[in-house]
Design brief:
By secondary structure, this protein is an alpha+beta fold. The protein contains four helices and three strands, in the order αααβαββ. A three-stranded antiparallel beta sheet has the order 1-3-2. β2 and β3 form a beta hairpin. The N and C termini lie far apart (28 Å).
């Protein structure tokens, strides 16, 4: 949810989806969460996201959801993808860090 991180790190993102909005229908300032999750994503977003991650898998994934409506519990595709290729590496101020496992 912090696209400025890429600019500050001088690194390109692994995908065009820099925030959770298009993948989960989450919008800042929203009070209702009943329609937030993978099944409410923009049509076609998840297949594109999977292709982009397969083509350029990131070395580090930062899960900054901290219990937000777009958390891993509501994104089974992302949760499975992390489980298959990444290991939890630590936590910084509540954000969970994942690093890619050795092939």
């Amino acid at each position: 949810m912090h696209p400025e991180t890429y600019w500050l790190a001088h690194r390109p993102p692994a995908s065009r989806y820099l925030t959770a909005g298009l993948l989960t229908n989450f919008g800042g300032g929203r009070t209702g969460t009943a329609t937030v999750g993978e099944k409410w994503a923009v049509r076609g977003a998840w297949p594109v996201f999977r292709r982009e991650l397969a083509g350029h898998p990131p070395g580090l994934v930062v899960d900054d959801a901290r219990g937000a409506p777009y958390r891993l519990a509501r994104t089974p595709t992302l949760r499975a993808w992390l489980r298959e290729g990444y290991a939890r590496a630590g936590e910084v101020d509540g954000a969970v860090l994942y690093t890619r496992r050795a092939e």
